[in-house]
Every structure is written in C-alpha cells, then in structure tokens.
Amino acid sequence: MVVRKVGKYEVGRTIGEGTFAKVKFAQNTETGESVAMKVLDRNTIIKHKMIEQIKREISIMKLVRHPYVVRLHEVLASRTKIYIILEYITGGELFDKIIHQGRLSEAESQRYFQQLIDGVDYCHSKGVYHRDLKPENLLLDSLGNLKISDFGLSALPEQGVSLLRTTCGTPNYVAPEVLSHKGYDGAVADVWSCGVILYVLMAGYLPFDELDLTTLYSKIEKAEFSCPSWFPVAAKSLIHRILDPNPETRITIEQIRNDEWFNKDYVPVRLLEYEDVNLDDLNAVFDDDEEQGANEPCGNEDAGPLILNAFDLIILSQGLNLASLFDRGQDSVKHQTRFVTQKPAKVVLTSMEVVAQSMGFKTHIRNFKMRVEGLSANKDSHFSVILEIFEVAPTFLMVDIQKAAGDASEYLKFYKNFCGNLEDIIWKLPNESCKSRISKTKSKKR
Q1: Would you say residue 246 lies in a domain?
Q2: At which of 247, 263, 279 does a domain end?
C-alpha cells in the first residue's frame, strides 16, 4: 500500500468533508501526534474569492491559543493544495451529544458553560468575536472538554471601529441587536449566543424556535421565552440576565464570572505559556507571485453570491435549452435541482437554514453556500445536500441543490418537503398557476 505524505505528515482516511474542503486524519512522523489535516483546493478558493476569508480565519486561530479552542499547528501548501494542520478532536460535536442524550444534567451543563465562557473570554481579550457560537461549532476532546471551532464568521474589527455591521450567524442563536442592522458590539452579541447555548444544554431544545422568520425575529427582539420547571432558580436568573434584549443592560462576561451559579464547582483553566504568533507560513502560502492579481478582496462585509455568466448557465442547463433551469417537475428531481427567487440573497439563505433545521438537519454555511446534513428518514444512513445561491440577473437569484450523500428517493422526499416550506420565496413562471388551473379543469370535465 502506498503511504501518502505531506511534509512530515502521513495522511490517512477522510474524516470529514465540507463545502470547500476535505478533512483527513494524519500523523506527525516526527512526534507521532495525530492531527486533522484540512485540505483546500487553491483554484477553488481563488474562484470563489475566499482567500481573504481563509487568511483571516487562519490568523484568528493562530492568535487564540487556548485550552478550550481548537489549536491550529501550521499551514502548508503545494502548487495545487493548501493544508491546514489542526488539533485532532475525537469526541465529536456537542450538538450530537444533545441530539442523542437530550438535555444534560445541571452539573454537565454548568461545566460546558464554564469552559465556553473561559474560551470566549480569551477570544475577546485578543479582539476576536466569534459571531457563530452554537453547539455545532463546539467540539469535545477525548477527556470531554469543550473546544471552540469554526472561526469562519469571526471578526477582528479594524482599529478605531467599535461596532460590527454584518448580520451573520445562525438565526436561533443570534442576538437581537445583530438583527436590527444598526451596528453591534461583537463581545456583547457573543454573550447572548452563550446564553442560548446554556438554555439548550439544560432544556434539550431552543428558547427561540419558530418556522416563520418574522415570528422568530419578533420573539428574539422581545426575548420572549420561558424556562422549564426543572431549571434551578439560580440558573434561570442567570439565563434571564444573559438573554436581555437590551445590549446596554445585558450581563457581561466579567459579571457572569462573579455569578454564584456559574462559580459552583468552577475550576479556572490553566492558560498555555505565552507563544509568539508567527504568520510566516500563512504569508508564504498566500503571497506567492503566481497568486498576485487573483487575490481579490473577499470575505468582506458586503460580499454577495456568485454571478453566473451565459456560459455558466449553459453548463448548468445541461445543454442549450435553458428551460431546464426553471423546470421543477418530478422528472427533473434526480440528483440536482434548482429553483429561482427574487428575494435578497441573505433572506433566501436564512429562510433555507431555518427550514432545514426545522426538518431536523444540521446546517453549515460559507459564502452563500450551505451544506445540509443529518440521518435519513429511517435513521440508518447519512444524508447530505449542498445548496448554493447564484445571481443570474440583478433581480433574480438561482438556488442550485445537489445531493452529496444518501439515495435518490431520500433526496426526492427532502426536495419536495424543503421546497414546500419555501413557497413564499420561490418564484414561479407567470403562466405556471394558470396551467395548474387548466389541468384541474380538464380533469373535472373527464
């Protein structure tokens, strides 16, 4: 058997797959240490204008060296690939633990929350605001300790800028001020997300969970929720102080640290010794001469979906007949399907995420591309779908849906249910409703 090596790392099986990267198990041949190797294709990230976003994510992970944050070891590159070497975490996602176990005990919830606050507090001390804190982005190591991951939406505000303005994150965990589009303090918004996570740990379900986005946002803005009867009084009090819709009066991390319930059996984390943050490997990977000119600004605050040109449309239509782009009949629902919308891209993305989560799936979002994954209907196999938003005209967007894992019949069921819950954003051909009425009339005459 041929053993593949990248530098000093021996590369093994694939342990994960995202929209733009594969994650491989690897071993450091010098130390014997197991690592996770995130493999990205250079051309893909250049094409999708993701260089700045990935550079920012790597810089942030190098900056936040903490026991409760996934550690980034180094960055390597070949002519065609970029390799990000990460700490290998074996315990899975906290999300999966909640799904399988239901609500956690008070002691276990408390311990995870303490570790979360320690890690988030350290990030804030370095000027890093996560902006997408949720159980899916919290991993567990072999000892059951929390590890904050996925800094893809994180922000490092520019000098002199105190408020962030990008609306991002998962709707159910997002602070009300983030939804208001008036600017927000990243640290205060992260605290809200921590409060939602604590509630989920102890309840086994979300405090704000509505299929209709307008209703969901309204409840978040008013902090309209109630704690279950089994919550201890002290925990209820803390959660209500965290889920304060007014960011000015919301409890701070320093105040959380002084809270009596938080301090019960609290063991302060022992910080790592100071390490000089070196970005030489990062600069070497991305600043090659061959990349100059292709390195356009990306991951910026106003980045939009990819714009399709005529050639892209022809390729997507599988021929010169562009009618298949807008065909949503059953015959076209095989492994790839599309629909068209006139709604803003962010509204479409958020709507799709809420619907997918309401169907019991996990979602992962990157640059107007979303991966939906979970178990099949009979719970015996993995099911995964990739959705990407494209701009086909200034007022028209196309959502391309592709099956990544699972069988075709499972995909057909998913597609029908998913689109059935998105009727308010899906654009129909002007004569489509008319055709439907005519066919019904004909069937009655028969």
Answers
A1: yes
A2: 263
Residue 181: strand pairing partners: none
Spatial CA neighbour of 352 closest among 314, 397, 299: 397
- CATH code of the domain in which 343 resides: 3.30.310.80
Buried b (16+ CB within 10 A) or exposed e, 180-205: eeeebbbbbbbbbbbbbbbbbbbbee
> d(Cα 280, Cα 269) in Å, to the nearest integer?
29
The β-bridge relationship of strands 362-366 and 336-341 is unpaired
**Which tens digits make up the pLDDT trace of 133-164?**
999 889 999 899 999 988 765 555 544 434 54
Between the CA of residue 258 and those of 196, 241, 266, what are the distances in Å?
A: 19, 13, 11
Rounded CA-CA distance 45/75 in Å is 15
- Letter for the amino acid at 158? E
369-428 pLDDT tens trace: 888 887 766 655 677 788 888 877 777 888 888 887 777 788 888 888 888 888 888 887
- Indicate the residue among 29, 59, 88 that finishes a domain: 88
Q: Read off the pTM.
A: 0.62
Phi–psi pair at 36, nearest 5 degrees: -105, 125
The residues annotated with a catalytic role in the active site are 132
DSSP 3-state of 22: strand
Q: Extract the tokens encoding 221.
A: 């803005």
**Cα distances (Å, whole numbers) of residue 138 to 88, 97, 115, 120, 166:** 14, 11, 11, 11, 22
Q: Domain range holding 170?
A: 94-156+163-263
Q: Which residues pair with 21 in a beta bridge?
A: 40
Q: Quick one: which H or E segment has residue 189? A: helix 186-203
230 shares a domain with 124: yes
Distance CA 276, CA 2 (A): 37
Q: Are residues 363 and 231 in the same domain?
A: no
- Rounded to an integer, what distance in angstroms lies between the CA atom of residue 297 and that of residue 315? 27
Q: Is residue 326, in this structure, part of any structural domain at all?
A: yes
| Those residues with Cβ within 8 angstroms of residue 303's Cβ, 6 or more apart along the chain or in another chain | 49, 367
What is the DSSP code (8-state) at residue 211? S
Residue 406 burial by CB count (10 A; 0-12/13-18/19+): exposed, middle or buried? Answer: buried
Strands (E), 133-192: 138-140, 146-148
